Every structure is written in structure tokens, then in C-alpha cells.
UniProtKB/TrEMBL annotation:
Organism ancestry: Bacteria, Pseudomonadati, Pseudomonadota, Gammaproteobacteria, Enterobacterales
UniProt organism field: Superficieibacter electus
Record Pfam families: TetR_C_2 (PF08361), TetR_N (PF00440)
Keyword flag Repressor: yes
Protein name: AcrEF/envCD operon transcriptional regulator
InterPro entries (UniProt xref): DNA-bd_HTH_TetR-type_CS (IPR023772), Homeodomain-like_sf (IPR009057), HTH-type_Tx_Regulator (IPR050624), HTH_TetR (IPR001647), Tet_transcr_reg_TetR-rel_C_sf (IPR036271), Tscrpt_reg_MAATS_C (IPR013572)
SUPFAM superfamilies per the UniProt record, alphabetical: Homeodomain-like, Tetracyclin repressor-like, C-terminal domain
DNA-binding positions: 33-52
Entry keyword set: DNA-binding, Repressor, Transcription, Transcription regulation
GO biological process: negative regulation of DNA-templated transcription; response to xenobiotic stimulus
Gene Ontology terms for molecular function: DNA binding; DNA-binding transcription factor activity
Length: 216
């Protein structure tokens, strides 16, 4: 048998990674075997071992090669972060949710992270994975600080609370949508969902309570 070229070997390796993503998303990491991945890729189990030592090795390779979501969507937001930090952040959230809704591969990765994986020591830590394809606390905090500097947010705002709210929103919407995507159109509803959470986090402390007392 002719020896495979480097290009052919890399193609097989990537095919195994893509097949693993599909199998992990459908059946879960724990319930997927190397044979399942090999069959889905149309190769022998021996071919899997040529490229990977174990299922966990494949799992880690998936996330090591995955570009951070914020890098994928960065150039799709045209607003100057220094001039319109909150609009910039709002549009990044909208684009991120719509990208997840439209891209089947990223959706499968999110399914693995939120519903199909129990982490063990040998795996890439969940926190590192979330930094790649989920909410970036460092980036969002930097944008919020710009908003305070520009006067878009009041100086007394507690950025830690805002980060908790935004993280809970982003993770909660994705997790619930993945459980039953037929219940609502994430792509279509992304702008409205984001606008509502941005309205909540940018309200001045006590504003809602004051408005409620006036209404009473």
C-alpha cells in the first residue's frame, strides 16, 4: 500500500475530528466510541490510532483548533468600540447568537459543551473551552469600562453584576434553545433578546423600582 502524503494524512485527521464532533453532539462524549468515530469517518479503527491516542485526545484536538467566537465575528461589527461601546457590545451579542443559529458546526460544538459532556481531568478544562466559544469576561469587561469612560454607563454601576447578568443571559439563551430549537427562531429573535438584556443592564441603579413606585 502506498504511503499517504502529508496532505492526505492531515485530511484524514480533520475528517476524524469532524466525525467526532458529529458523534459527540448526537450521542454524547461518554457514549461515543472510537469505533463510532471511525465508522462515521469511513476509516478503520487503526487509522484513528495513527492520529490520536484516545477519544479524549480527539476531544482536546477539537477545541485546540477552534478559533474563539469573538475572533470569528470581530470584523462583522463596524462600530468604533471607543465611540459607541454599548452599541458595539450589543451588535457583537446579536451577531454571535445569529452565527450560532446559522452555523451547524458551531451549533454542534455548543451542544457538546452544554448538553453532551461530563468533564474529567484529562480533558481541556471547561472554563478554557467556554473562553473560546462562549462569553469572554475579559473582552466584555473592557467594553463596559469604555462605556463608563464615555458616559454611556454611570460611574457607580457594578461591572461584576453586569457581567453576571450578561453571562447568564448568553449562556441561558443558548442552552435552552439547543434543548428545543423548534420552540423559537434564535436567528430572528436575537436582536430583540439582546436589546432587552441591554436595556436591563444599562438601567440606572434603582430606576426600575422608582418607575414602579410612580406607576403605583
Amino acid at each position: 500500500m502506498a504511503r499517504k502524503t502529508k496532505a492526505e494524512a492531515l485530511k484524514t485527521r480533520q475528517m476524524l475530528i469532524e466525525s467526532a464532533i458529529e458523534q459527540f453532539a448526537q450521542h454524547g462524549v461518554a457514549n461515543t466510541t472510537l469505533t463510532d468515530i471511525a465508522d462515521a469517518a469511513g476509516v478503520t479503527r487503526g487509522a484513528v490510532y495513527w492520529h490520536f491516542n484516545s477519544k479524549i485526545d480527539i476531544f482536546n484536538a477539537i477545541w485546540e483548533q477552534q478559533a474563539p467566537l469573538r475572533d470569528i465575528i470581530y470584523h462583522q461589527t463596524k462600530e468604533d468600540i471607543h465611540l459607541s461601546p454599548l452599541l458595539h457590545l450589543r451588535n457583537q451579542f446579536v451577531i454571535a447568537l445569529q452565527y450560532i443559529a446559522a452555523d451547524s458546526r458551531l451549533r454542534a460544538l455548543m451542544q457538546i459543551l452544554y448538553h453532551r459532556c461530563e468533564f474529567i481531568d484529562e480533558m481541556m478544562p471547561e472554563d478554557e473551552i467556554r473562553k473560546k466559544i462562549g462569553f469572554s469576561h475579559e473582552h466584555v469587561r473592557a467594553v463596559l469600562k469604555e462605556a463608563v469612560t464615555s458616559g454611556s454607563l454611570p460611574t457607580e454601576v457594578d461591572l461584576n453584576v453586569v457581567l453576571i447578568m450578561l453571562h447568564g443571559f448568553f449562556s441561558g439563551v443558548i442552552k435552552n434553545w439547543l434543548m428545543a430549537p423548534e420552540k423559537f427562531d434564535l436567528y430572528q429573535h436575537a436582536p430583540t433578546l439582546v436589546d432587552n438584556i441591554m436595556l436591563a443592564v444599562t438601567a440606572k441603579p434603582g430606576q426600575i423600582l422608582r418607575e414602579a413606585s410612580v406607576a403605583c
